[in-house]
Amino acid sequence: MEAFPSSSVSFLAFSRRGLIRSWRQLPGAATLDAYFTRYPAARASAPTAPGQLPWRNPQPSQRPPAENKVAWFQNLHGKQQVQVAQAGGGNGNGLGLQFTTPPEPGQAPTPEDLAETEEVTLTAAIRAKAQELGNNPVAIQNWVRNTIEWVPTWGAIQSAQDTLDKQRGNAIDIASLQIALLRAAGIPARYQFGTVEIPAAQAMNWVGGASQIQAVLQLMNQGGIAARGSVQGGTVQSIRFEHAWVQAYVNWAPRSRPGCSTGSPTS
Q: What pLDDT tens digit does each residue of the chain (267 aa) get?
């Protein structure tokens, strides 16, 4: 039989008494069962479909850019039945604007052109930035153009506030920010989509100084932008691609009488 020093025996006895006391203080099975019945264990997290995340990688584009109104209509609306609003003179737009020349059908500003949306977030920071820029459409345009970095992707990937915070975004994200700033300034604004063509050198500069024009096309297509090169003399001279910008109704004419303003679209 192994002999232990008296100090070791005292320590072992103390440890065992402590364990027994702890076990007696633990809740019984009935108590635990009642607790979990009252507070059932919840799942740590719910499964989320990767394709439904608010931020996700854009899908690569394998189609050529739309180059006419019919193609753009199909891109934007697909098979939906879309009724084009008829333009009206006077104050029929609900914004109290007068037009010297009636706008084209569907082009007159509406209350929606001043509203907040999921992408066009009119946060306190957005309103403060618009006020800092004097609620001036030219100052807003210049600030966005000179401050926000363009990213070669496509689709509404982030909100206006996110674009303001990150100081970068794709064409639609940048348009969302500019629209938010204009609407915060009380200026009706909306998205404008179209196909643009820029020289190869400018396109390479847009993507951060690419050395080869084929790299630009690859970056755009991988980012989901429908783009193609325009070839002359066996080389790509320019790139034609789908783009987004802002259409705003700005008062360029002096007020003819109190409460009356003359609006005209500008992009």
A: 555 555 554 555 555 565 556 555 555 556 556 656 665 655 555 555 655 555 555 566 667 776 666 666 666 656 554 444 433 344 445 565 555 555 666 677 889 999 999 999 999 999 999 999 999 999 999 999 999 999 999 989 999 999 999 999 999 999 999 999 999 999 999 999 888 999 999 998 888 888 888 888 888 888 899 999 988 888 899 999 999 999 998 876 555 444 334 444 555
CA–CA separation, 87 vs 107, rounded Å? 7
Distance (Å, whole) CA 236 – CA 203:
11
CATH code for the part of the protein at 63-69+114-266: 3.10.620
195: enclosing H helix or E strand:
strand 189-199
What contacts 184, CB < 8 A, 6 or more positions away?
122, 126, 127, 129, 130, 131, 135
SS3 241: strand
Q: Which residues pair with 168 in a beta bridge?
A: 149
Give me the sign of the Cα torsion angle 140, 160, 222, 61: negative
Q: CA–CA separation, 191 vs 214, rounded Å?
A: 29
Q: Kindly list the domain boundaries of the chain, sorted by start residue.
A: 63-69+114-266
Is this structure's pTM higher than 0.85? no
